[in-house]
Amino acid sequence: MSEGERAVPGAARSSLPPPALEMRGITKRFPGTLANDHIDLEVRPGEIHALLGENGAGKTTLMNILYGLISPDEGEIRIDGEPVAIRDPADAIARGIGMVHQHFMLVPVLTVAENVVLGAEIMHGPVLLDQAGAAKRIRSLAEQLGFTIDPNARVEQLSVGQQQRIEILKALYRRARILVLDEPTAVLTPQETEEIFAVLRRLRDEGASIVFISHKLDEVLRIADRITVIRRGRVVGERVPAATTEQELADLMVGRSVSLRVDRGVAHPGEVVLEVRGLHVRDDRRHEVVRGVDLDVRHGEIVGVAGVAGNGQEELVEAIVGLRRPSAGRIMLRGRDRTTASPREVRAAGVGYVPADRQRYGLVLSFTVGDNCVLTEYRKAPYARGVVRDERAIRRRAEELIAEYDVRTPGPGVRASTLSGGNQQKLVVAREFGDDELLILDQPTRGIDVGSTEFIHKQAIAQRDAGTAVLLVSADLDEVLELSDRVVVIHRGRVVGEFDAASAERERIGLLMARGVAA
Amino acid sequence: MIAAVRARLASWWRVATLPVLAIVLALAIAAVIIVASSAFTGTGFFPLLPIYAYGNLFAGAFGSDIALNNTLVAAAPLMLGGLAIGLGFKAGLFNIGVAGQFLAGAFAAAVVGSSLATAPVPVAVAVSLVAGGLAGAALGAIPGFLKARTGAHEVVTTIMLNNATALLLAWAVTDLARAPGFTFPRTGDIGTSALPVLLGRNLHLGVPLAFAAVFLIRWLLDRTTLGFEIRAVGANPNAARYAGISPLRIVTLTMSLSGLLGGLAGAVQMLGVIGFYASGISASVGFDSIAVALLGRSDPIGILFAALLFGAFRAGAPLMQITTQVPIEIIDIIQALIILFLAAELIVRRVFRVRARPLEIEGATTVTRTWAEGSVRT
User: For residue B245, which residues of chain A lie inside 8 Å, CB to CB?
Assistant: First the structure.
């Protein structure tokens, strides 16, 4: 083949600069699964490119390949048209690739400046750090991005949104031109999301390439210039926001037609199941974060607690389920005082609980899927006869739940840690949903995909229709409004508003969440 | 059927690869040390010395019925002690107090045993063993309770209790429990409380008891609800609490059970080998048990094999020293190297270019994690 022939395809493209990042035919097999199946991805300079897909679709695997955390079985990566080999994150950083992980990689007790320079310190002589120089550079970087930050503040004192901006600063400080953000908005409030979007747009306008991993359709449509949709390890479509809809993206992502709105139907509330009166609860640092909450939940209704994360919702729920002892007040379940009951006693009284943090509370990740399926019922027949566990019964139960809740796993015998986030959540939901009197859902769909969310919402409504009292806590106001028959707004540990589903106005509730008053 | 057996073997090998390679590497380096030291001793520089030394070590451990019995007898207390440590690891606890629990068990068995020296064998043996186990359990319960109630780290409390126990027992044997008629402070003869010899000259009842304990603990961990609770607390105490398990109860209970096994190790050694308690009896079993549990990866079957290996070292070393003048202390070097390579498994991986499963020695993470996280919340 002569030089002339080879030049032809290049010539056709020569009007465009080469893509900042090109991934061609990336394939990665894991035992039992094909995580990436010949994935092509192309990101241009000055582009925000969204990578959309359900949990377990292979988004994170692809990005881990890009960042050198795992090596692909096949495929090629080009940066600015040059084929590159990325063996480890140091290679990736040297090539100008920056990664902002879903779980922040920050040292809470260090300052902003110390966190940013960690591993790439500017030295003042052989021993001392040039702290003033670092602080100056961080300030100017932040300024470029349109926000201010105190380089000397300790990271633990900052909000989640601010911490995320530090992660971005960290990448830019290392001169990243290709920035990968893995589910960046999963933990942010709507306001913080807007702020981060402003930062990303500014970066794009300065010529950076951004890969934005998400499964939130509205956000992807708002921020992205182009969208690549992945399903089960394969690229199933590429779209531009102007020429697509949420519905189309959702269908592509899930591979079937999904309903984005839940059909809630009418609630038929019965008698009161949960009665909370004048409840006060302290957090781990002994600050009072629940300050006099009254709350009723009845049979056959979903009560939604709306509030910005960190306004006492978590502690309120922990007190109800017995994980935290209230400092004052009363908790009654079906008329019986359960204020000081242990988690086991609360469960025995018919309470199911999907905790906000599935990895911390909901699952033992090193245990098998089967053991996690009976984590809360391991002592009961048929899973145990006396003190001896019945492996067969446990396995049968696990297989039932896996089938019924469509948990994607090779089987009950694998460790729960091998499941994707959405499937881990489905596992917890599968275990907790049953014939409960009261079902407590704390952030039931945080960080999980559309398909699973749709499923969990439908199940929650089915539970309500079967007569269960459901208490839903969520930082996602849309979710609260969609599911709840009644909405309670919590601000700084107090209930500041209560609405019927019919009379709930989004703006009014948003203001109450943010300020505690609606005026 | 054959395929299933093969898969089973393959999965065992995946787990055992790194420990086995660590042993091989430790023996290789100890061989270099043996050769090097031969240059400075009477034998003169002798490159083949390690082969003779290891040959005699092997012969002393497995070469005859007597050798085999010695190995099993030396392995029995290590099995029980290794189980004590391993059980703690499963619950996220590092019971360094096995040395103290071993002494307490040995002392209690000696005192009770000598007072029942003329009772019928079944009664004398059973009661003495139980006394030893209970003494260890009581000693284990203290740090367990302190940890559960106040968050006091068990590594600190058990180390302190080791010293307190050794000194308290030294006083007890010179004063309270001193038997008359001996020139030095010791407890009386144990008479019929001695563990019956089942085979040969010295293979006593403690050996089958230790094997039984291995399978009992394995059953406890894998098949019972208590074992599930212990493993859950060890793997994720928050999720355990959420699931209705009380970590406080499990921590106290596990430390007591761990102490019980440590105490039994002492009782078996006392009633099967030593025969009387005197100030200064060796509690090295307590520390060798840590190595056994680490080498066995906290798994009861792994501990069984690790204890047999360490028992073989102890049983074979005297023959090695007599015939090749390589000192018994080389065994301590080999054991230390094994643990070093288990902790620094990367070295083993590099040397042998293996891609076996990471070790996940529970103890290694246990220490750092529990230090960092502090107390279990009430």
Answer: 344
Does B235 contact A367 at a Cβ distance shorter than 8 Å? yes
Looking at per-residue confidence, does A66 or A505 come out higher? A66
**Cα–Cα distances in angstroms (integers) from residue B318 to residues A342, B62, B73, B328, B330, in the given order:** 58, 13, 15, 6, 11
Residue pair B72/B148 in contact by the 8 Å Cβ criterion: no
Take residue B245 and report the two structure tokens written for it: 């398990």
Cα–Cα distance for residue pair B285/B162, rounded to 1 Å: 13
Average pLDDT estimate for A408-415? 89
Cα B85 from Cα A152, distance rounded (Å): 45
User: What ipTM was estimated for this complex?
Assistant: 0.82
Rg (CA), chain B: 21
Q: How far does A280 lie from chain B, in Å, by closest CA?
A: 18
Q: What is the mean pLDDT of residues A376-398?
A: 92
B10, part of any domain: no
Which amino acid would we find at residue A103?
H
pLDDT-based confidence at residue A151 (cuts at 50, 70, 90): confident
Model confidence at B357: pLDDT above 80: no
Average pLDDT over residues B262-291: 92
Domains located in chain A, CATH noted: 19-254 (3.40.50.300), 262-350+436-519 (3.40.50.300), 365-431 (no CATH)
Structure confidence at residue A476 as a pLDDT band (50, 70, 90):
confident
Chain A residue numbers touching B246 (CB-CB < 8 A): 342, 344
Token pair in block for residue A65: 């390949």
Predicted TM-score of the model (pTM): 0.79
> Are residues A461 and A483 in contact, defined by beta-carbon separation less than 8 angstroms?
yes
Whether B244 sits inside 8 A of A347 (CB atoms) is yes
Cβ contact B239–A360 (<8 Å): yes
